[in-house]
Amino acid sequence: MAVKVKIPTPLRSLTNNLDQVPAQGETLREVVLALDGSYPGMRERILDDGGEIRRFVNVYVNGEDVRFLKGLATVLGEGDEISIVPAVAGG
Amino acid sequence: MAFERALRCRECGREYPLNPIYSCEFCFGPLEVAYDYDGIRQAVSRDAIAAGPSTLWRYAHFLPCDPQFKVDIGTGYTPLIRADRLAKAVGLDTLWLKNDTVNPSWSFKDRVVSVAIARAREFGFEAMACASTGNLANAVAAHSAAAGMDCYVFIPNDLEQGKVVGSAIYRPTLVMVEGSYDDVNRLCTELSMEYPWAFVNINVRPYYAEGSRTLGFEVAEQLGWRTPDHVVAPMASGSLFTKIWKGFQEFHKVGLIDEPRTRMSGAQAAGCSPIATAYEAGTLNFIPQKPRTIARSLAIGNPADGYYALKQMQETHGGAAMATDEEIVEGIKLLAETEGVFAETAGGVTVACLRKLVESGFIRRDEETVAFITGAGLKTVEAVVDAVDQPLRVPARTDEFAAALSARRGAPVGASAGA
Question: Chain A residues with CB inside 8 Å of B300's CB?
Fold first, then answer.
């Protein structure tokens, strides 16, 4: 699946300042690993040592928090929009 | 004299300059203001604070902004009320209410915005913005109007009329987003990367959040430079709850009070209780929820400081409780009928949870307790309009009044319309 990934400001140093990049993958986990292939360092910024999404990172697929979906196992569709957003905002 | 030193990641400890940034570039942890506490210790004294203005600016040495940029419309130093009638009703010996309904836009959010807008002006921002469940929108719009700044406030589309009009009247650009607060917050987080505005609870959040410490400062000062045995405060993002405790700790750190031993307990609505649910499950990892509650000011399903709120309960031997919509309405009424304080729904949640925590024995009768009432009831009239007694309707004649009064008194004691 080809998807679009929106990159938050703190990760743009890894993407040559691009705020959106294309990626491939059947699941969210595959997309994160694919991103790490294109932009080395991405994996350790998004995932913790246990391979799960970091506590203070929110990931959305088409606007829905992946914790309401299947987390990293969420299956993606063609053209899905993935947003990576710092979690410490709001309130 | 400014004593803020740097921004520091609460998770990994990396430090950053004092810029409009909020999350650690490495681990995404929250950035928090680090202070020179030795400097503050030398600059402050009980007498000097007590001689200061009757606003939160009496604690200027503790605030991470330059007071010359302040927008002072009278926020803070609100009453701490001894609440004997409510204490008796819930079964406590000593209860105090921190009545923050009397701020300029009628909620505690004026505190955080006071700090955020001063810092934003210092940074040179020309426009203020926020994601809000309503109270923050009111406070940002009011302070921006007073400062003559452009203002963009984003709210969910299911808010009470009082909160919508209570923002619109200051003439910000008011944006109603289809969805819940969590949708609004995600949108604003993304917008904050595109627009050159000070989003008070996003890119200037480290400064903004520090404003809530003044609630802890005030309670300690108003109790005679000491802290209570127990605190009950409402939790939405969990930020207010953690900053009250931080205020107590800092007053100790700079030598103004003895070491605080307060047990910190949080209140949530049953229909949006990610933090209280995690507490009951004995975990620090909350699961986000889709809110369904009349307490819209607490309807944050994905709380930014939920993890820290849970840690704080553990550290202080505090706890959490949750209140159903019916209990929230009863809590608002009980507070009004016993103490003459009309709170919005978050106050109903706080009173209902206070009652439960006392009933279960979690708060002991002899624990001196402070309950934080954070917003005014006229903002959420919808919540109670069907639960209050209907007026006696009479022609302007004494005999008609007398007849109507006896008819009302003839009703069974305690009966009321609706519930």
Answer: 90-91
Secondary structure tally for chain A: helices H, strands E: 2, 5
In a domain, A91, yes or no: no
**Rounded to a whole number, what is the distance in Å from the CA of A10 to chain B's nearest CA?**
5
Ranges of chain B whose pLDDT falls below 70: 1, 411-419
Q: Do A6 and B190 touch (CB under 8 A)?
A: yes
pTM: 0.95
- Contact flag A89-B190 (C-beta cutoff 8 Å): no
CB contact under 8 A, A83 and B300: no
**Which residues from chain A sit within 8 angstroms of residue B12, using beta carbons?**
none
Q: How far apart are CA B51 and CA B172, in angstroms?
A: 36
CB–CB contact A13 B300 (8 Å): no
In the numeric block, the tokens 């200027």 are attached to B60
Nearest to B28 among A13, A57, A90 (CB): A57
Is a pLDDT exceeding 50 seen at residue A11?
yes
Q: Is residue A40 part of a domain?
A: yes
Domain annotation covers residue A31: yes
B154, B127 Cβ separation under 8 angstroms = no
> How close is the nearest chain B Cα to the Cα of A3, in Å?
18
Q: What values do phi and psi take at B337, rounded to 5?
A: -75, -25
Closest C-alpha to B104, from B164, B170, B158: B170
Q: Which two tokens stand for residue B139?
A: 């406070």
Quick check: B239 and A91 CB within 8 A? Answer: yes
The arrangement of strands across the sheet holding B230-234 comes to B80-82, B95-99, B369-373, B230-234, B263-269, B320-323
ipTM, two decimals, is 0.92
Task: List the CATH number of the domain containing A46.
Answer: 3.10.20.30
The answer as to whether A11 is a domain residue is yes
Decide if A91 and B182 are in contact by the 8 Å CB cutoff: no
Amino acid code (one letter) for A66: V
Q: Which of B186, B195, B208, B239 to mutate to test the interface with A (most CBs of A within 10 A)?
A: B186
Q: What tens digit of pLDDT does each residue of B26-40 get?
A: 899 999 999 999 999
A36-87 pLDDT, tens digit per residue, is 999 999 999 999 999 999 999 999 999 999 999 999 999 999 999 999 999 9
Domain residues for A50? 2-86
